[in-house]
Design a protein that fits this description.
The protein is mainly alpha-helical. It folds into two domains: about 270 residues, no CATH class; about 220 residues, no CATH class. The chain contains 20 helices and two strands.
Length: about 500
């Protein structure tokens, strides 16, 4: 596998598919089937990487490729996969397939372009997770933003242009600051060693003065905090989710939010350990503030999509808390919670999209009595709502439990406050389920129970949620070695 360019194929197959779809403008049926075939092939390829474990290098990568690229600037094509990357790459492939399936009938205009952008974004996200060269990482970091901008602006609803521009500007400002910090690290390392390189392995261990380290790490942290998003840098997310098409919301919540957390874990803490420790109280404070604030605001929402968007901010606050504490148990919980959130929130946005397709409204007050009209849909809705609320036996509970357990010893007060964020989601989730599913019908709406395509999407996600909730040990075992390397402990 190391001799065969497995990671390169994984990285560029979706992009090649995107270029292929350029030739299919006006041929909607062919464009759909071709895009789905490529996405499924990418998923098979990602899943086959699970059989490559067991030959890890000293740095924990069991798949690794390193080739010269722009040698005069010290830029190399370096990509690698460890247990962390394996989980996130698999999640990316699966969520991309789901994003295509939820768009199967709802997208009727510029079909080839829509699926082209999804495939291009998949390549960008894969590149972020696989890159071990900071220049390459930044290249893919920027690449994944452009397709999302067009997905929102072309197929979005209501204030779609406003939301797309707001999303782009927020992320662009953070990205430019990170670029300056990357150049700063590159130059300082070159002055110290005489070797100019963007490679993560080479740059790890570079010495910075306290002020310089804080400044550079702050730029990285800001870029990643926007993508989490952490309060108060979160305001672009509810607008983007509200106005995005269902596929855009699925990818945004299921994948793009994870890139910020991953960047902090893979690059922020290893490159600037002293600065990260110094600013960890700030990150803990922002994480707890986001958990409580987002849960409180979610309760006041009348649009189901906006409610799920605010719940995402709260759940990602738990991920930020686990990273900020930087203990093996908390970090393992944060990584597992990234996967959990990707699965559960993908399901919730898919469910809201299905309702919107049928009734053309997302207002909670318009619904009621769905249990008697569409019982199969209602059962899935209740299941995923309870998973999002952290019900024991379902996946979110495991991640949140590990984060709180791993955080308590070193951050007592923050953990106690974060526990409020476990209780509040129960309040707004029970309210959502009661009003949409069990409340008396408020107005007659055209409703049909789920189709076979929708059943496949929801059943797969439900099985994944149940499996992780009941038996998380295999996934935690995969994370054990990379987490130990990052934290110097044993999970």
């Amino acid at each position: 596998m190391n001799q065969f360019p497995f990671l390169t194929l994984l990285l560029f197959l979706p992009l090649a598919g995107a270029f292929l779809l350029l030739t299919m403008t006006g041929r909607e049926k062919l464009a759909r089937s071709t895009a789905l075939t490529i996405a499924v092939a990418e998923t098979v390829l990602a899943c086959s990487a699970w059989f490559c474990q067991g030959n890890s290098s000293a740095r924990g990568y069991f798949l690794f490729e390193d080739r010269p690229w722009i040698e005069t600037l010290g830029i190399r094509y370096t990509v690698g996969m460890d247990g962390i990357t394996l989980l996130l790459v698999t999640l990316t492939a699966l969520v991309t397939v789901i994003a295509m399936l939820v768009s199967w009938r709802s997208i009727t205009e510029r079909v080839a372009l829509h699926f082209l952008l999804i495939l291009a974004m998949e390549s960008g996200i894969m590149g972020v997770f696989l890159s071990l060269d900071l220049f390459l990482f930044y290249l893919f970091w920027e690449l994944m933003l452009i397709p999302m901008f067009f997905l929102i602006s072309i197929w979005g609803h209501d204030r779609n242009i406003y939301s797309a521009v707001k999303f782009f500007l927020y992320t662009l400002v953070g990205s430019l600051l990170m670029l300056l910090a990357i150049i700063g690290v590159y130059l300082i390392h070159g002055e110290q060693s005489g070797i100019y390189s963007f490679g993560l392995a080479a740059l790890t261990g570079t010495r910075f003065s306290p002020a310089t380290g804080l400044l550079l790490y702050g730029a990285f942290l800001l870029a990643f905090a926007v993508k989490f998003p952490l309060v108060p840098l979160h305001t672009w997310l509810p607008d983007a989710h509200t106005d995005a098409p269902t596929a855009g919301s699925v990818i945004l919540a299921g994948l793009l939010l994870k890139t910020g957390a991953y960047g902090l874990i893979r690059f922020g803490y290893p490159l600037f350990p002293e600065a990260a420790r110094t600013l960890s109280p700030l990150l803990i404070g922002l994480a707890v503030a986001g958990i409580i604030y987002a849960s409180w605001i979610a309760f006041a929402q009348k649009d189901m999509k906006r409610l799920v968007a605010y719940s995402s901010i709260g759940h990602m606050g738990f991920v930020a808390l686990g990273i900020a504490v930087w203990t093996p148990v908390a970090l393992s919980g944060a990584l597992l919670q990234m996967v959990n959130h990707g699965l559960t929130t993908t399901a919730l946005f898919a469910l809201v999209g299905m309702l919107d397709e049928r009734a053309h409204t997302r207002q909670i007050e318009d619904y009621g009595g769905l249990w008697g009209k569409i019982p199969l849909f209602s059962a899935f809705f209740v299941l995923f709502a309870m998973a999002s609320a952290g019900l024991p036996g379902l996946n979110n509970f495991v991640g949140e439990f590990l984060i709180l357990t791993g955080s308590f010893k070193s951050a007592h007060l923050a953990t106690a406050l974060a526990f409020i964020g476990v209780i509040l989601p129960l309040v707004y989730t029970v309210r959502l389920v009661q009003e949409v599913i069990f409340q008396e019908e408020r107005r007659p709406l055209p409703m049909a129970d789920i189709s076979s395509r929708e059943l496949f999407i929801l059943a797969f996600l439900a099985l994944a949620d149940l499996y992780i909730g009941l038996h998380p040990a295999p996934l935690l075992e995969i994370l054990k070695a990379p987490v130990a390397l990052l934290t110097g402990g044993v999970p």
